[in-house]
Amino acid sequence: MQINENIGEVRVSGTIRLAQRARDLAAQGKDVIDLTEGQPHYNTPRHITEAAYQGALAGQTGYTAVAGKPHLRNLIANHINHQNGTDYRIENIVVGCGGKQLIFNALMVSLERGDEVIIPAPYWVSYPEIVKIAHGLPVVVQCLPASGFKITANQLNAAITGKTRWLILNSPGNPTGAVYTKSELEEIATVLRQHPQVSVLSDDIYEVIVYEGAEFTSLTKVAPDLIPRILTISGLSKSYAMTGWRLGYCAGEANFIKQMVKLQGQSTTNASTLSQVGAIAAFEGSQEFLSEWLNDYTGARDLVCKKLSQSDALEVHQPEGAFYLFVGCKKLFGYGDIVNDQDVCNYLLEKALVAVIPGSEFGCQGYFRLCFAKPVEMLDKATDNLIQSVNDLCKRQ
Ligand code: PMP
Ligand code: GLU
Fold first, then answer.
1. Does pTM surpass 0.85?
2. What is the mean pLDDT of residues 382-394?
3. What is the CATH number of domain 46-284?
4. Ligand nearest to the CA of 357
């Protein structure tokens, strides 16, 4: 059967591919520690699952409005308004099957062939590929460790052309955990004011996972005059440990949201009704577990940073948010057969039995990413194995 040129050029998601490889090795009986895919190791809080279960028993098993249950959309509008200083109403909100689908829908309804989308690297693996699927052109801007892996106002200004349609901002960011400060966002807003053709896709999916000393700030709050040009994407995957429920949402200008709903109505229709019932319980229920989880993540982050800093061959950048560590591994190039970060990850999988993802998957050669939303004992063992294998490699020459 024919496969079109466009999809032929799209890469398989690196996070999903490598997570599957780790699962396959585990199925073959290998004792692999899988730190690839980004998802909390917790179960979804019980009251959320219970609500969905009761909802199913009570017959909430049919379709809903394509954009989502009105009550859920109102709850989402309230949450965003409270946090981001917006004034959204139900018509500004669409619920979909995960943040990923909403990013897809937003780019599909907006990009014309050849339109440019600025993507600061390191980036989440799916951004450039979704842009390509929507016939756009990803414009990748390399962000340096010295600027905390964040795009600077000067870099943004230099990257904008007459064909730029979007800037994708992701804070806290995957894969580095970088969090944009208020003043950094103010500088970005100043550049954006000079370029009315550019909108911002603000991916806030890690909004609640921020460590002490850093603070989540939305561009909408810093620059309310730009609200009509900002589209906010988020979801319950990370904050409520609901990755498998596939529940995300998007907020923005009403007519734009209407077009996204039209597209969704011709593809997946509404997000799973039971997931929506669970999401209502998530927003309405106690949020106390979040601070417990955040404590655990802080402990996990400190543990992996401390342990991996023991090796001079690794460069550790402490994340301010999300649950990833982005580790520099260029110093290992030249040892044995290792010439790039993929070789490093293959070596670590073979010798340390730890699965991590090469930085090149995130548009940044010379790093690997690990997810530390895992039990402490697992991280302890994984980091011991990693350090041991790196030391063995360095001793070999
Ligand atoms: N954005 C970022 C930065 C992510 O890491 C993820 C992780 N999957 C998503 C969006 C999409 O998440 P989901 O589709 O599970 O809501
Ligand atoms: N976003 C997560 C990650 O980066 C989950 C996998 C995916 O959807 O890419 O690992």
1. yes
2. 96
3. 3.40.640.10
4. 2
